[in-house]
Amino acid sequence: MRSPTELTAWKKLADHQQEMNSVDMKSLFEADPKRAEKYTTHAAGWTLDYAKNRANEKTLSLLTDLAKEAGLENAIKGMFSGAHINNTEDRSVLHIALRASQAQESLMVDGVNVLEEIRTTLKQMEKFVAQLHSGEWKGHSGKTITDVVSIGIGGSYLGPKVVAEALTPYKKDDIKVHFVANIDGSDITGKLKQLNPETTVFVISSKTFGTLETLSNANAARDWFLSNGGSEASVSKHFAAVSSNVKKAVAFGMAEENIFPMWDWVGGRYSLWSAIGLPVAIAVGMDNFYELLDGAHQMDEHFRTAPFEENLPVIMGALGVWYINFHNAQTHALIPYDHYLRAMPAHIQQLDMESNGKSTLLNGDGVETDTGPIIWGGAGTNGQHAYHQLLHQGTRLVPVDFIVPLASHNPIGEHHAQLFANCLSQSQALMVGKTLKQAQQELRDAGTTDEQIAKIAPHKVIKGNRPSNTLLTDKMTPATVGALIALYEHRTFVQGTIWGINSFDQWGVELGKVLGTDIFNRLVSDSDNSALDASTQALIKAFKKAQA
Ligand code: F6P
């Protein structure tokens, strides 16, 4: 794999950026009455309006050329056929198989039909979820289960948590689902305080069953259970696991039928569609979980088959590259105008930043370009009263994705019209801005003196010409939420492919894990720390002093 800078389309885009530098988006709308229509496309229950971008036909055609020249067509084929596109771990990348249509009979990977394994696991999930909701599953004292606590971290936590929250209107009332991730004891302590050990089931989600945070929290939950009426013999009634390490889960005390498999061809941050999504299935029921998978599958099919010019993940991914590499954008904001989707930016942050936070090309050479941006964001309209100031008048260019449903699950008064209006007005304001002349006129109309106008007007200037996409759907449902997350998964893959990096490993995280264990051992022993840097030595000393 070569550096993308060597591609013809990349070089042409660099020249084209010079042409576009002085072009204002407003003038693009004025010049083409059909611009909004032309730059709107649909898939899997979503409409993408990308007209408010610093892009004309040439830009979009060069970006499509870039994706093609970077080998995106083959990369997509590779993903969907189970090729080992995760080259540093020599693995397939098959989250798409987890949501494959029931009509598809096989997907052979290294001699195994993975669809059979997936479907067997879905049946196992169905049984588990049904037993919990029907009350057939009893705790050790014969009581029915009222609470399920999912313990995991990273991909084994955030995706399911965000989706469960996004699907709040679909939640079943009989069982409450909670999530614990942080090694900070306050996380699990706070949760356990609300729970009754007789009516609580813990689902330990860890692909490796070796992650420090998850094992520490699982052990704390087990200790709490044992010291509050539970026994070793009844651990299996209160603990289940999702893991590829069955041996370790059995050693913990789980019954084998309550251990749900994971596979090395699913990356953690892409795993919510597997049994890692069990907490979601418990929260909203299996039917809704299947709808979630189906929505994601619709987006997969769109990504696999639609021409690049109409392909949502390709358009969004390529436009992202345009801003990151040709306009020096360092960050990308996601602003959902949907209360239940408020945590989604955190999941996409994990998905994208763990995937594309890379500096090495597939061939082992260092990258010559910027890669993954800092992904951030939060709920509209709350953000308007916080960081939107920087979006409008700050010195940095921040491309934004606005995400908004046409209908609310809670239609009271004019709330939804107000919410929708705010979403639209933000993308409009980012584009149109306010000129000095307009600011001066505004002040003059308000009866401000000339002296004051001269002082204040420059502060009211908003440059505008700031890009955004708007993603619209009828309503947030399991299917549209599934499709939305799949859209961002593929967008990440599109960008990784253009940059020539492997979006599916995460070696950077490993160094922190290794050093964390070393420092922990130093904190709990009398080790000689003199070889460490002075700052770390002093911090270790401070901790030990506080414990003494
Ligand atoms: O953060 C690194 C990581 O390996 C993620 O990729 C993964 O989702 C998370 O840790 C948790 O790992 P596990 O599921 O093995 O506990």
Automatic annotation (TrEMBL):
Active site residues of this protein: 354 (proton donor), 385, 513
Any coiled-coil regions, as ranges: none
Keywords: Cytoplasm, Gluconeogenesis, Glycolysis, Isomerase
Primary location: cytoplasm
Enzyme Commission numbers on file: 5.3.1.9
InterPro entries to which the protein is assigned, alphabetical: G6P_Isomerase, G6P_Isomerase_C, Phosphoglucose_isomerase_CS, SIS_dom_sf, SIS_PGI_1, SIS_PGI_2
Record carries keyword Isomerase: yes
UniProt cross-references to Pfam families, sorted A to Z: PGI
Pathway it works in: Carbohydrate biosynthesis; gluconeogenesis; Carbohydrate degradation; glycolysis; D-glyceraldehyde 3-phosphate and glycerone phosphate from D-glucose: step 2/4
UniProt subcellular location: Cytoplasm
Superkingdom assignment: Bacteria
Gene Ontology molecular function: glucose-6-phosphate isomerase activity
CDD domains tied to this protein: SIS_PGI_1, SIS_PGI_2
Catalytic activity annotation: alpha-D-glucose 6-phosphate = beta-D-fructose 6-phosphate
Keyword Transmembrane helix: no
NCBIfam families: PRK00179.1
Function of the protein: Catalyzes the reversible isomerization of glucose-6-phosphate to fructose-6-phosphate.
HAMAP family according to UniProt: G6P_isomerase
Family to which this protein belongs: Belongs to the GPI family.
UniProt name for this protein: Glucose-6-phosphate isomerase
Organism field: Marinomonas primoryensis
Biological classification of the source: Bacteria, Pseudomonadati, Pseudomonadota, Gammaproteobacteria, Oceanospirillales
